[in-house]
Design goal:
The chain starts with a helix and ends with a helix. It is globular. Helices cover about 40% and strands about 15% of the residues. The protein is α/β, with parallel strands linked by helices and about 400 residues long. The strands form 3 sheets. The chain has a 7-stranded mixed sheet with strand order 2-8-7-6-5-3-4, sandwiched between helices. The chain has a 4-stranded antiparallel sheet with strand order 9-10-13-12, covered by helices on one side. It has a two-stranded parallel sheet with strand order 1-11. Helix 3 crosses helix 10 and helix 11 runs parallel beside helix 14. The chain binds pyridoxal-5'-phosphate. The site of pyridoxal-5'-phosphate has 14 residues, from helix 4.
Length: about 400
Amino acid sequence: MPTLEQIRRQYPSLATGFAYLENAGGSQVPRIVADNLRHYMLHTYVQLGAGYELSQRAGQPVEQAHAFINLMMNGQEQGEVAFGASTSTLVRMLADCYAEILQPGDEIVVAEIGHEANVGPWVRLEKQGAKIVWWRVNPTDASVSLEELESLINERTRIVAFPHVSNLLGEILDVKAIAAMAHRVGARVVVDGVAYAPHRAIDVADWDVDWYVFSTYKVYGPHMGALYGKREAFLELTGPNHYFIPRDSIPYKFELGSSNYESCAGLVGLSHYIKFLADRDADEPLDRRAIVDAFELMQQLEHPLQSRLIEYLLSKPQVRIIGPAHAGDSRVGTISFVHKNKRPSEIVAEVDKHPIGIRHGHMYAHRLCLALGISDPEEGVVRVSFVHYNSLEEIERLIEVLNRAI
Ligand SMILES: Cc1ncc(COP(=O)(O)O)c(C=O)c1O
């Protein structure tokens, strides 16, 4: 397996010495992703689907990217991946499609801890007669209860929308258990995997989810969103694409205006980076085992950083960690906190004076902040988010600055 140093060398941006600790906002890209994208634009930038050889060749990375992301999510033959501009766009599109088939009185369970991307599009359906049922957060410790969720799901439930990991709290929810609960009454789950996908291997087949969405720009790739859907779930909806696109044209019926070709080429580069992490030969075909190995390495590398930062924050009595106050496998390296006497903006302003990137705010988990009693969501929380390429040295540098700031 590659060392951290070898990994960091794949990212030109990391060589500047700037500590990127705002990865939940967006990750850096390895060189091969940018190189592939650039090469595509300079050499194969034509429209797809024509008969000439170049047009045929230009289509290959687009197909390969769909296949790669389906493998990365372990969609197998059960489902397909549609690309779109972003997670927010894809979920909004999905909700608009469901609007056409929901009946008045149908219920949609929505998690209060969600990023607005997987909240607002469902809440809008209230106007069309859907009933929104809130899966609330416990304001004391920012936890959610599966027992409570079970009590909210009934024969009228059609959709259960929730994040795999909240982008503020960092805790991993039991997707498999939630999907099983929803399926007992024939409801579909729509899982926002954006805050999970940069850290662990996705396995939609094992979890048996209907819809799972993430943003590729937070998973070391270019700006795009990827939506996995079970074939049967895709088939029950009319896609947003033009009327003459057949109903069984999956995923194209969901790719209004088609996908971003050069970003697809970038994603093919990402598949090579995954092989590099998993210690596989560059010309070996990528398989599921390599994906799992790569993400296990990421998890291992992240672990000591979690432990160190949480240990530090726990040593400060004025600090309250928002989310689980422990390191470990049940959380990712997205750690938020508030301070008794200092505003988040004051703390972050101190850090901003150094070559370290963190941020404060509600991070579009606006309703979660309000539910937790954070009276000014614009102030929100201080959030530090790291991934496998970050180093302990960067966390130590941050701690040194935080120590002065708080
Ligand atoms: C958990 C979560 N969901 C959804 C989104 C929205 O993603 P996009 O920018 O691709 O719309 C974000 C972005 O920060 C996020 O963190």
